[in-house]
Amino acid sequence: MWDRKSLASVAQLSRSDIEEILSVASSFAREPRELCKGGILANIFFEPSTRTEKSFQAAMYRLGGQVITHKDAGSSREKGETKEDTIRILAGYADIAVIRDNEEGKMQAYSKIAGVPVINAGDGSNEHPTQTLLDMFTIMEQTGRLDGLKVAFVGDMKYSRTIHSLMRSLSKFDGNELYSVHAEGLSAPEKMKSMFKGSYPVSRMKEVLKGISPDVVYCNRVQKERLKGEGAECYTIDRDVMAVLPERCMIMDPLPRVGNISAEIDGDKRAAYFRQARNGVPVRMAVISMML
Ligand code: NCD
């Protein structure tokens, strides 16, 4: 059972915790309720963000609460203040903290420093649990299930935290088949490789996807800022790729897309990425309100 004091990793969530969060999110999607009036959320971002930061903000506003935001630029971080002190101070002004970090695995330590509930908004290439919850919400909304899915991950299996968290979560459900279609040199970390039913180079993407006939293609850009000399081979999901995918297949991407999804497929009803981004608000409303 999730203790609701921190959300550092999807490992803290059981299958029924995930189902409960998604059900609360779906009630917020139908009818927002101001359950956090008077509350303050600290958005603390040590890495760039558009969707995560702004959807946490919108979620807290819709819950009737308020938001303070830290970004390094213009802050005392430029004078050399540590991340730890920054968290200590900002969390002291707030009731809950959302933290995005460029380092992996420090969220539990940050949570102790903060003294208020802490939500991991992405830590290095490790995890991004709330992205996964909104991904699962989107899959549930469209397919009506989280079991028995064929999911092909395309792109950077090595450094994509959204892929890592989603793989771990889908593995808690029954009968999901996960496939890796990875860019050169960017296959999954050793400890995660056994989670895949098949693993293929992205240079064979079209024939591989045709063979798999997936329910979901989950793309993510090559995480250029995290590469340590690996080749940043690119791929593009375009009309040609869509032609080999079944009608029921959803195309998902946490975004930003940087050439990996062509705008020519935006009008295709299988393109789910903008709906997916919008679902960030009700899902984050659910997580914030449950933790407060
Ligand atoms: C992702 C991230 O930050 O990991 N973005 C997001 O939160 N929607 C994906 C990415 O940056 O590629």
List the helices and strands and how they pair.
Layout: E1 6-7, H1 15-30, E2 40-45, H2 51-62, E3 66-71, H3 83-92, E4 96-101, H4 107-114, E5 118-123, H5 129-143, E6 150-155, H6 161-170, E7 177-182, E8 198-201, H7 205-212, E9 216-220, H8 239-242, E10 250-252, H9 273-278, H10 280-291
Parallel strand pairs: 1-5, 2-3, 2-4, 4-5, 6-7, 6-9, 7-8, 9-10
The site of N-carbamoyl-L-aspartate has 11 residues, from α2 and α6.
What CATH architecture of the largest domain do you see? Answer: 3-Layer(aba) Sandwich
**Biggest sheet overview:** 5 strands, parallel
- Computed structural class: alpha/beta
Q: Summarize the helix and strand pattern as letters.
A: EHEHEHEHEHEHEEHEHEHH
Discrete helix count: 10
Morphology call = globular
For the secondary structure, the number of strands is 10
Strand content: 15-25%
Rg of Cα set:
19 Å
Query: How many domains is the backbone divided into?
Result: 2
Helicity level, as a percent range? 25-40%
Ranges where pLDDT stays below 50 over 5 or more residues in a row are none
* Ligand catalogue: N-carbamoyl-L-aspartate
Structural overview:
The chain is of the alpha/beta class and 292 residues long. It has 2 domains: 134 residues, Aspartate/ornithine carbamoyltransferase (Rossmann fold, 3-Layer(aba) Sandwich); 149 residues, Aspartate/ornithine carbamoyltransferase (Rossmann fold, 3-Layer(aba) Sandwich). It is built from 10 helices and 10 strands. A 5-stranded parallel β-sheet has the order 1-5-4-2-3, with helices on both faces. Strand 2, helix 2 and strand 3 form a beta-alpha-beta unit. Helix 1 crosses helix 5, helix 1 packs across helix 10 and helix 5 crosses helix 10. Bound molecules: N-carbamoyl-L-aspartate. N-carbamoyl-L-aspartate binds next to helix 2 and helix 6.
